[in-house]
Amino acid sequence: MINKVVASPAAAIHDIHNGASLAVGGFGLCGIPVALIGALHDAGTSGLETISNNCGVDDWGLGILLSDGRIRRTVSSYVGENKEFARQFLAGELEVELTPQGTLAEKLRAGGAGIPAFYTAAGVGTQVSEGGLPRKYDGAGGVAIASPPKEVRTFGTAEFVLEESLTPDFALVHAWKGDRHGNLIFHATAMNFNPLCAMAGKITIAEVEELVEPGALDPEHIHVPGIFVQRVVHIPAGSPGSEKRIEKRTVQAEPDSAPAGTNGQEA
User: What number of CA atoms fall less than 13 Å from residue 204's CA on the CB side?
Assistant: First the structure.
């Protein structure tokens, strides 16, 4: 019997080395592997290259690694909501490969499927394909590293740009349920980038809220089969390191209960 369960987040990430590349699941603050990121932060690992839809917020998710200068480069599709991210990028402390969101998803999926590259229409005719998109500034307003031009081919009557797939050293994901073989189920929108990251990583580490025995999961409901997952760590909902945050709260002020000019009295 293959038992992929490890005792703790620290044990799960023990061999993530300085300079490693990581695909990290989540979208905003939904479905992010909080416990694994926290363990990586505690371990002091640095020089990381992260591949994620975004880089957390200033004090949560990947943002805690970023704020301590642990991330040297990131491949992302959205870079807002994080003031420290903007500061480091403009100061020349962080390299950023800005990637269209659908392209990022396909780069991960293709990597997991063993496809080295693919053509897409996204970005044709822009700096994404033509090059020149700033990846790193020099701290004085100049561009130290710019994106290179990419191969563009015509298929039929349309042009497409060649994008290479991603196969990072590790992947960190958060799942709702998982078994000891590494089969995973994600809950609702927390699925987001998690299955794609799980497929792409050379070593995939999953934190799961509910750990079950093999055979307890309906095969038709499994989103990522265990063949893609090397380690599982149980982080029950409500336990330390399992906090879930809401990225933005919209609060609407109570409307005035009395129509203007009536002083609250009926006509």
Answer: 27
User: 216 near 179, Cβ under 8 Å?
Assistant: yes
Counting the structural domains of the chain, the total is 2
Q: How far apart are CA 165 and CA 226, in angstroms?
A: 21
Assess contact for 224 and 198: CB atoms under 8 A: yes
E-strand ranges in the chain read 5-6, 21-24, 48-51, 71-76, 95-98, 117-120, 134-137, 143-146, 152-155, 158-164, 170-179, 184-185, 203-212, 231-234
Q: Domain check: are 229 and 186 in the same one? A: yes
Domain that holds residue 214: 5-116+165-234
Residue 236: CB atoms within 10 A of its CB come to 12
Question: How close are the terminal C-alpha atoms of the chain, in Å?
Answer: 79
145 pairs with which residues across the strands? 136
Phi then psi dihedrals of residue 167, to 5 deg: -135, 75
Q: Which helix (H) or strand (E) holds 166?
A: none
| Same domain, residue pair 139 and 223 | no
DSSP-derived 3-state class of residue 210: strand
Instruction: Write phi, then psi, for 182 (nearest 5 degrees).
Output: 95, 5
Domain presence at residue 101: yes
pLDDT category of residue 28 using cuts at 50, 70 and 90: confident
pLDDT confidence band for 264 (50 / 70 / 90): very low
Beta strand 170-179 with 184-185 is: antiparallel
> Running DSSP on this structure, what letter comes out for residue 236?
-
Of 201, 237, 243, nearest in space to 37 by CA? 243
Do 84 and 203 fall into the same domain? yes
Eight-state DSSP code of residue 27: B
